[in-house]
Amino acid sequence: MLPNDSERAQIFFWLKKVSSVTAWRRIIKFYTEWAGATETSLRVADENGWADRTAIPTSDYALILKGLAHCEEGVIRLSKGDKRVFKFDANGEFAMARRILFHWAEMTTRIEQGENIIDESHTPLWTEFCETLTSACKAWQECAMHVLEPRYLDDPGLTLYGDWLRNELTLLEFPDYLPCPPDPLHNVFIRTGDVIPSSGIWEPIDEKKSSLISLFKRVAPPIPPFHPVGAMNYLHGGSKAPKITVETEDDNIDFDTTWRLLWKDERYLDGNIPAEEKYYKFNEPENSSLAIRINPAPEQCVWSESGEIAKASGTWLVESDLNTSIFIEKGAELPLHCGRQVRWVLSFK
Predict the structure, then answer these.
(1) Does residue 69 fall inside a structural domain?
(2) Which of 25, 54, 183, 207 would you call most buried, defined as having the most Cβ atoms within 10 angstroms of its Cβ?
(3) Do residue 334 and residue 266 come from a single domain?
(4) What proportions of the chain, in percent to the nearest 5, are helix, strand and coil?
(5) Helix extents (H) in the chain
(6) What distance in Å separates the CA atoms of residue 52 and residue 57, rounded to the nearest whole number?
(7) SS3 assignment, position 302
(8) For the segment 324-333, what is each residue's pLDDT rounded down to a tens digit?
């Protein structure tokens, strides 16, 4: 099963969209909404003396703030052209932001199924907490599942052309005119297991090797015409090129392949956002107007470094040691922690 010319153009446009800074700025809004609902729930519980009975303890709220901070840092770096934020390594801000989000997604599923039990009567606004969490997860998955590097680096390419993707393309909204994917004049090829030289959109091709044999027995580059053998994928610079999965009538088969670079992702290096991003539209969550705001959630997590002035009065948590908290008045200097400079995150305003 291979994409036709129209589907190739759609896949190329779609992969650019889900890896865009516009997509991830949108995700932050839903993540922030969830953090706002969490804060309100915890505050109401605290006001009623239920802090030790609520299913959403202060420690989890601190982790949610930490996840939000990673998500924001990822968007800041992405907006400057740093694509390493998509990787599953020390640079992977989004991988770190995902942990608490999907921990709670799994937790709420178990609660719904009756595997886990909580004291819902002493957990204020539980419905709002779950709804904002679900919206954040849906917005996240729409983009993340085909662009974030998987945890296990020997996994095949994330984007598989088959019944699911073919149906998904019919549900997405595309511009009236989609140009054909690029056909580079100067080709870059890599094979499964090779280190990917740059992040971007790569396409697996049917390699027709030259009949000429190098004196040094080097592998000859593929020769045109280049025929796709699967779906394009967004691959990550510095990682090893994956296998590809091909869907047949009754099975999925993984095999080594040759990848051809169609488009090197150099967006945002000049500080600009491509004009086409103004027209990006997303499907998830279905009702994006849900936007539950018990208290209007801040546009971003409030944090400052040791030695800086506190931007608001409240309880501040050490990002790297969530058991440590202090109350600081607005305008006071944030202290060192254990004699070293740290980042403080505002918990309660």
Answers:
(1) no
(2) 54
(3) no
(4) 35, 15, 50
(5) 5-18, 21-47, 58-79, 93-112, 126-144, 163-171
(6) 7
(7) coil
(8) 778 888 888 8
